[in-house]
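Repro case for the chain-ordering regression, as requested:
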Amino acid sequence: MTQAEIKLCSLLLQEHFGEIVEKIGVHLIRTGSQPLRAIAHDTGTSLDQVKKALCVLIQHNLVIYQVHKRGVVEYEAQCSRVLRMLRYPRYIYTAKTLYSDTGELIVEELLLNGKMTMSAVVKKVADRLTETMEDGKTMDYAEVSNTFVRLADTHFVQRCPWVPATENSDPGPPPPAPILVISEKDMYLVPKLSLIGKGKRRRSSDEDAAGEPKAKRPKHSTDNKEPIPDDGIYWQANLDRFHQHFRDQAIVSAVANRMDQIFRSLPVGYNISKQVLDQYLTLLADDPLEFVGKSGDSGGGMYVINLHKALGSLATATLESVVQERFGSRCARIFRLVLQKKHLEQKQVEDFAMIPAKEAKDMLYKMLSGNFISLQEIPKTPDHAPSRTFYLYTVNILSAARMLLHRCYKSIANLIERRQFETKENKRLLEKSQRVEAIIASMQATGAEEAQLQEIEEMITAPERQQLETLKRNVNKLDASEIQVDETIFLLESYIESTMKRQ
Amino acid sequence: MASRGGGRGRGRGQLTFNMEAVGIGKGDALPPPTLQPSPLFPPLEFRPVPLPSGEEGEYVLALKQELRGAMRQLPYFIRPAVPKRDWRRLPRELKIRVRKLQKERTTILIPKRPPKNTEDKEETIQKLETLEKKEEEVTSEEDEEKEEEEEKEEEEEEEYDEEHEEETDYIMSYFDNGEDFGGDSDDNMDEAIY
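-- result from build under test --
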């Protein structure tokens, strides 16, 4: 794990789980697999705190455990899984587009809680949806269940590894940690539950079925006594499946853009006939993007989507775009040139790009020191004498992608730190504004006059309002940038992973 | 070694590669030497591309910020514990009311704070309007609290303190002594380690 990744993990853990969990998590990421006592000793944290932190991390699928010889349990952190926390909003939004609000909330609850039983999810989501509905309306458990089943069927949620059912009761002592099992065929099996009920609002003024007393008592005290029907069957969001969806989306939209270009340069009738479809497919197959390949002529031609090539093209396009935005369009032209021709000498670059030598040199060196381009030596003689060696500029896509990915991690870490800094700088003002809002809200609830509300609002002066506006704008920008960079991370990681698998 | 000492005298100024091949001709002015590390914020040559806006962008942004807030409220967010102080030796007025949560915890982990907020705001108004009464309230509640702490078994209502009332600069959660999460972690352990 690079320092940049560890730094980013540290920021994410600290923002979402607090400093103690961050300390333990980062320690495990750095040192690898460790038993409980070693963690406590090395981090100087009390055993209690370490236990709490590990529970949280395991609950959220960020740390796994393994029983080693002599009954020692070792804990291991999953750095890449921690980085996925950046993508949570995207997963939730995708669920919304595919399965609307119900799906959105199901995935959100699963991500916020790490693992949950189906009955717990259904209940929680029904309650939340009921809150947003009109007075008197409630969300039925059955509807939420249906959406849950659909999510399971399409593999967007999956079962967590479970405790194997022991046939014979072991006479010996129980193992220090259970060995959880998981089987492919049961991973999406939804338990047969008959969840009957409706969501409940938090406001005690509504009629509840059970006639529960006011909100001061814990909400679920009555439910504690009922046995949970699917106890021990936990579900989690299946991130890989979402990634598959993102990848498909990226490819489809890239092709759609391409199709637009082709569209414009062809006379097209309004009905797509088989002939025209053929033409399109041939065009796609011949397209230098190489997304679609033709493999064989059976059945009029078999077309195949070349995923690896597609990902490669997307990664390359990303690199091109970065060069363009960072160094300018002339640099980008040189970059595309070297990409296309694979290897070029200094002189050739100047000639093909039609850029004067001095400028071309400057641009090439800028890209070289940024590691977008590399120099390859081709010796002419066995003694590798410099005067008799070709020096060719080339783009090594894999290593450039890795370099850019590393940069992305650093960027996001910077963005998060800056956001935290901005928030801290304005802490006093933020707290003041929150208090004022709270006062106004409660005064409105108890029916205050316009004049009184006005008075309270004026507690925040005009320049302070300005400051708050600026702060909000900046924080939004930083947040939006984080989301944007994560999209680039996704593309680059997908490409790198796909390349490594083929080796 | 002989060769190292020799390298300094002979063949000085020779590079391992041919300069011309890389494009630096003889007699070309080299760029000025760098005397300091590159600036922290190097000047931007080109303006960055605008961020995506529109419904999807706005929605995902709002989601992100909500999630961040939500996760801070969940029980998974562990705050550092405050060192235990010996209250026998310190003036009573320094003691801040510690938020006591209901000992009864359910297996379903839900955000604890939202139900309290309404109580929160009402308390705030009341306290803002009756300053004198507040001081009495505080001391009497402190007395109450001392008794309750000694008993250690009561299930109380939640009491949430606004920072400004006690005129401290610390966020109230600073004074959590971690016992709030005792019950939770037991539950957690049941679920995580089957």
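Ordering looks correct now. Confidence is low (pLDDT under 50) at residues 99-120, 134-167, 181-194 of chain B.
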